[in-house]
Amino acid sequence: MGSDLKNRASSEMEMAKRRQRILAEGFRLFSKRPIDKVSMNEVAEASGIGIATLYRYYSDKPSLVVDISTQVWSEYIESTRSRPDSEAIRTMTAAQRFERFLDSFIDLYLNHRDMLRFNQFFNIYAQSEGIPGDRLTPFTQVIRALAGRFHEIYETGQRDGTLRTEIPEQKIFTSSLHLMLAAVTRYAVGVIYAEDSVQEELSLLRNMLLREYTRAA
Description:
CATH architecture of the largest domain: Orthogonal Bundle
Structural class: mainly alpha
Number of domains: 2
Number of helices: 9
Shape: elongated
Radius of gyration: 20 Å
Strand content: under 5%
CATH topology of the largest domain: Tetracycline Repressor, domain 2
Largest sheet: none
Order of helices and strands: HHHHHHHHH
Helix content: over 70%
């Protein structure tokens, strides 16, 4: 009995390691080239497994792609919670927290360009393949976590007056998210006219949003 349990635990551990390897190699490949240009055979080969084994983990490419995107964003959002200044958030004004929120997009460009490229390819692939909403649920639930964190900023603004809460929460959140994410993604995929001006331009966009949505305490 004890031997059976050990063997089962060892097998489950090996399966978990293999799955993580599949996700890591899939992300690496899908962040370099459009997803529809990368075959499942390439993912299997890069992961050191046969194609039949890959299909035992993922029945089709959309399942694999959604799982990769869900994990990548989950890990990134979780990492921002454990940043050195995370504890200091409680003493920040809403305007300061909003600035930190906007800066997180600049951080994506500076330190996670592969993630931005993958996200661009993922959005294109999901639309072109017509992946239904129910299959995207794990990913969309993770993204909703960003809205939840922004809600905390908005509530703080209602108390301290440093955020323009006469403007609907959804408008501030979606416009900031779309503008910042579109900008950093554009630069990450290589649409750049002058490399040395990228950070300056991103800071300019951040400051424009700050002027639009915040006020002095």
